[in-house]
Amino acid sequence: MSVELITRYRWLIILVGLLLGSASSLITGDSVYFPLALLGVAGLLLAIFRLEWGLLMLAALLPLIPAKALMFLCALFIFAYLYRLLTGKAEFKIDTIGVWLLVFALALCCAGLLSFSPADSLQSLIAYGLYIALFFILSNVVKDRRLAYLIILALVLGAGLESAIGIYQYNVGGVAVQASWVDIEEYPESSTRVFGTMDNPNVLALYLELFMPMAFAWLYTARGLVRKSMFLVLTALMVLCMIYTASRTGWVAMAGSIFLFGLLFDRRIIAGALLGLAALMAYSPSIIIYRIQNLGGTGDSTFMYRTFIWTLCLNMVKDFWYAGVGLGSATFEKIYALYYMREGIIAHHSHNLYLQLLLETGVFGLASFLMLMYRTFTEGLNLLKNTLKRADAAMSAAIIAGFSAFLVHSLLEHSLYNYRIVLAFFVMLALQSILVRINNAENPGMAAELNSMSEERGQPEYS
User: Fold this and answer.
1) Pairwise CA distance, residues 5 & 367, whole Å
2) What does pTM read for this prediction?
């Protein structure tokens, strides 16, 4: 390999090396401090000299990087972007998704500053602030389709690697799981649930829900045997890992996302999905059938546990619906402790995203979040309807399907509890915004139609 070739692809070599080094460290159980130190150095260099490659590195390594390291990298990228702005090498534009994200950010700020426990809310406020800032960096730095799809590819590859780690955990066995995750008395073979690097099987399921439709969209639209084979392997890894999480809500959300993707993009997919689902159910282990049959039933201890928590949280809502108790689960726990003493049901969060947002940020926070998602869906559907690019239509349908699965799962889980999931969520928002902006630039008719809709609603124009 020539020196010129090494120089030309130096950042890609760094990225691949860090990806493999971090993965091997996690699998073998060796210290992660060395790869994390390399990550910090590479992140600093990339932030200064090649911000775009730094964003690619972040996307690929997202499931492997600890939350504090993610915050550090986001801070580096923010400073690099601000430097570009001050030197005239970057611009700042905002679209409708960005406007509603700012409204949601305002609600988060109010919840953090007016919290019953400001010190506990501070870390959550900082994390949200950094990750929301990354949304605006991505939506302004990524200006062409090639870079957008490279970031999507990095996310899918990272999710595939995370799935491989989960599958490794299942096959090796001996992975420590909490007693509350499994029903060993009823089914001894259910003693293993994989969680990858996410610390919890349900959190891993949430992560896969976001990016699995992207892998499937690429599988469906990719040309050439090599590309299709690669995305077939990635999709299969994610499906298998999702099964091994034993997350029933994750299974339902995964199936629903594939059906929704087919409905939005190509309805022939639905027929294939039905056949695949029938085959999966026919040859599924008994534990899978058992867990699905017990979902939400009177014998479902998990659902009953959540029901008790929701009852207590609804009592909290009666007292704090207008402004919430403050941002973050630590603040929630302190106020919740005053209520659970009556029933003796301990919880770190409400196990429902919408209830959690209402309790943390009040009605303004919940309403702004729902409006943010509504605008994200309408932007995606308009792009799907008007784009001239089949790949963009498929990816927009995949983003909508991923968000839909995520929001369905959020009915039974506080899906923004894990900071890596929070960052993945905002990266997905940015990708939808990026695809809309690129298509507006290429298809003025689409932009004109959206501008007329925005004027009717009193919202900013697209450019």
Assistant:
1) 52
2) 0.85
CA distances from 98 to 78, 306, 453, 463 (A): 16, 34, 16, 13
Kindly tell me the sign of the dihedral angle through the C-alpha atoms of 166, 167, 170, 172. Answer: negative
Cβ-contact 236, 166 below 8 angstroms: no
Distance separating alpha carbons of residues 254 and 337, to the nearest angstrom: 34
User: 3-state secondary structure string, 404-461?
Assistant: HHHHHHCCCCCCCCCHHHHHHHHHHHHHHHHHHHHHHHHCHHHHHHHHHHHHHHCCCC
Tell me the backbone φ, ψ of residue 155, rounded to 5 degrees. -65, -45
Please give the C-alpha separations between residue 392 and each of 81, 210, 221, 289, 353, in angstroms, as whole numbers.
Answer: 27, 17, 10, 37, 29
For the chain, 463 residues long, give each residue's pLDDT as a single digit of tens.
444 544 455 555 455 555 545 544 444 444 444 455 555 555 555 555 678 888 888 899 899 888 888 898 898 889 889 988 998 888 999 999 999 999 999 999 999 999 999 999 999 999 999 999 999 999 999 999 999 999 999 999 999 999 999 999 888 865 656 555 555 555 555 567 889 999 899 999 999 999 999 999 999 999 899 999 999 999 999 999 998 898 889 999 999 999 999 999 999 888 888 887 777 776 666 666 666 666 655 556 777 888 889 988 999 999 999 999 999 999 999 999 888 755 567 788 999 999 999 999 999 999 999 999 999 999 999 999 998 899 999 999 999 999 999 999 999 999 999 999 999 999 999 999 999 999 988 876 655 555 555 555 554 444 4
Q: Which residue type does 53 have?
A: W
Contacts of 290 (CB under 8 A, 6+ apart): 186, 187
Q: Do 232 and 182 touch, CB atoms closer than 8 A?
A: no
Q: State both tokens at 67.
A: 């939350």
Residue carrying the six token digits 């690697």? 161
